[in-house]
UniProtKB/TrEMBL annotation:
Domain (Prepilin peptidase A24 N-terminal): residue spans on this chain: 12-95
Membrane-traversing stretches: 6-25, 104-122, 128-146, 153-173, 193-218, 230-253
Family statement: Belongs to the peptidase A24 family.
UniProt entry tagged with the keyword Cell inner membrane: yes
Source organism (scientific name): Actinoplanes octamycinicus
Domain of life: Bacteria
Pfam families (alphabetical): A24_N_bact, Peptidase_A24
UniProt GO cellular component terms: plasma membrane
Name assigned to this protein: Prepilin leader peptidase/N-methyltransferase
Biological process per Gene Ontology, one example term: methylation
Length: 261
C-alpha cells in the first residue's frame, strides 16, 4: 500500500497526541486529573476556547499569549505537538504498514512524555512507566504472531531481563529507581527488533548521557555533584537504535573486518 497516506494520517494523529501529551507532562507529576478541569490558563483560570486548542495553529493564532489575560504561553507547547508529529511520521516511515507500527507509535508518545517530565522534575512516574508494560505486550505480542515471528517475543523478554539486571546493578552506584523500571520496557522494544538494536540502544544511552554530562561540566551548567536526569538519554539511545541499528551495526562489522591484524 502507498506510504504517503499513512504518513499524512500519522502526522495528523501525532499533532493531536502531542496536544494531549502537553496535558500529561504538566499534570501527571502534580497528580492532577487528565480529564478535569479542561484546558485552561494557569494564570487567570479561563477555559481555552476550542479554536485555540488546535495543535500548533492555536498557539500561533494567540501569538503565544492567553486570549484573556495575555500571559505568555510557553513555546514548548507547539514544539511538543510538532515534535510528536515529526517523530510519529519518522516511526511510520521506519515501520510502514506493519503490525508493529502501533506499538512503536505508543513508545514514541511515551518517550516524549517521560523525557520532558524527567527533565522537569527528575522523575519517571510509575503512572506512565508501569502501565506501558501491559500496553507494549498488548500491541507487540499480536504483532509478532501475525508477522510470523514469535522469536521476537523471546528476544524481547530476554533483552528486558538483561537490561533490568544491568540497571539494577548500576542502581548500587546511584542509578535512579525510575531508570531501573524503564530499562526492561526499552529492552523489550529493542529486543523485538534484534540483538544489535539492544546493544546499540543500551550503549547509545550511556554515550549520549556521557556527552551531555561532559557538555554541562564544560559550560559550568552543572557541577560534579549535580543531579542529571538519565531517562531522556535512555530514550534517545533507544530511538537511535530503532532508526539506525542496521547501518550502525553494518558500519561496525565493516570496521572490524577491515581492521589490520
Amino acid at each position: 500500500m502507498p506510504l504517503l497516506p499513512l504518513l499524512v494520517v500519522v502526522g495528523v494523529l501525532g499533532l493531536a497526541i502531542g496536544s494531549f501529551l502537553n496535558v500529561v507532562i504538566h499534570r501527571v507529576p502534580r497528580d492532577e486529573s487528565l480529564v478535569h478541569p479542561g484546558s485552561h490558563c494557569p494564570n487567570c483560570g479561563h477555559a481555552v476556547r476550542s479554536r485555540h486548542n488546535v495543535p500548533v495553529l492555536g498557539w500561533l493564532m494567540l501569538r503565544g499569549r492567553c486570549a484573556d489575560c495575555a500571559t505568555p504561553i510557553s513555546a514548548r507547547y507547539p514544539l511538543v505537538e510538532a515534535g510528536t508529529a515529526a517523530l510519529f511520521v519518522a516511526v511510520a516511515a521506519r515501520f510502514g504498514w506493519s503490525w508493529a507500527l502501533p506499538g512503536y507509535l505508543y513508545l514514541a508518545a511515551v518517550a516524549i512524555a517521560l523525557a520532558l517530565i524527567d527533565l522537569d522534575v527528575m522523575r519517571l512516574p510509575d503512572k506512565i512507566v508501569l502501565p506501558s508494560y501491559a500496553v507494549a505486550a498488548a500491541l507487540l505480542v499480536p504483532a509478532a504472531l501475525l508477522a510470523g515471528d514469535p522469536a521476537a517475543l523471546l528476544r524481547g523478554a530476554l533483552a528486558a531481563a538483561l537490561l533490568y539486571l544491568l540497571y539494577r546493578l548500576l542502581a548500587l552506584w546511584g542509578m535512579g529507581g525510575g531508570d531501573v523500571k524503564l530499562a526492561p520496557l526499552l529492552g523489550f522494544y529493542l529486543g523485538w527488533l534484534g540483538w544489535s538494536a539492544v546493544a546499540i540502544g543500551a550503549f547509545g544511552g550511556f554515550l549520549l548521557g556521557g556527552l551531555a554530562g561532559a557538555a554541562l561540566l564544560l559550560t559550568r551548567a552543572a557541577g560534579r555533584k549535580s543531579r542529571v536526569p538519565f531517562g531522556p538519554y535512555m530514550l534517545a539511545g533507544a530511538f537511535l537504535a530503532v532508526f539506525a541499528a542496521a547501518p550502525i551495526g553494518d558500519w561496525y562489522a565493516n570496521l572490524l573486518t577491515s581492521a589490520p591484524y
